[in-house]
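[agent] plan:
  1. take the single chain provided in the ticket
  2. run structure prediction with default settings
  3. attach structure tokens to the ticket
  4. add a short note for the reviewer (M.T.)
[agent] executing step 1
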Amino acid sequence: MVKNYFSRKQTGLTLIELVIATALTSTISAGLWQIFITTKQSYLYHENMARLLENSRLAIVFISNNLRLANTVTLNEETGDERLEISYNAPRDCNNNQLKNTEQPVINQYYLKDNTLMCNGNGGYPQPLVNGIDEIQFLFGEGSNGSVNRYTDTPTTSNIISVRITLIMQQKLFTTTIKLPNPS
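[agent] step 2 finished; step 3 output follows
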């Protein structure tokens, strides 16, 4: 009786089949892992950008709202740092302090301290408003008849028509220009 070795059914996997299956599984897993890592990095980048935009918008809104009410706007450098000083008539300052004398104008000072936009109202305690600001610059639009002739960081005339605010946050610039209601 002759045995036929070729007619037997195969009951397992060969070593080559296992190596090929392992290689394919590893390649697919590595590809999926790379997609996951890339997606997470993209998410973190966009989340950081959204936070950056939100902080810049908040800083500009805080200052812009006061500038739109301004009677006078000056740059105060007496304290050693550059402070935008805005004076206007309202019952409360930027720290939400109620003024005792409503005839007295509100005077808010905006300045940068330790990468934080600060606001100091009428003799109150300075309050942090927005974090993450590397630099802030105020330029004053001087001119006449409602037309700006030049922007300067040291206004020489009392004809301030607008204020240009520039924020630098993580090497990105955010700029806006606010027209004053009552040019000085």
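[agent] step 4 note for reviewer: The mean pLDDT is 86.
[agent] ticket updated
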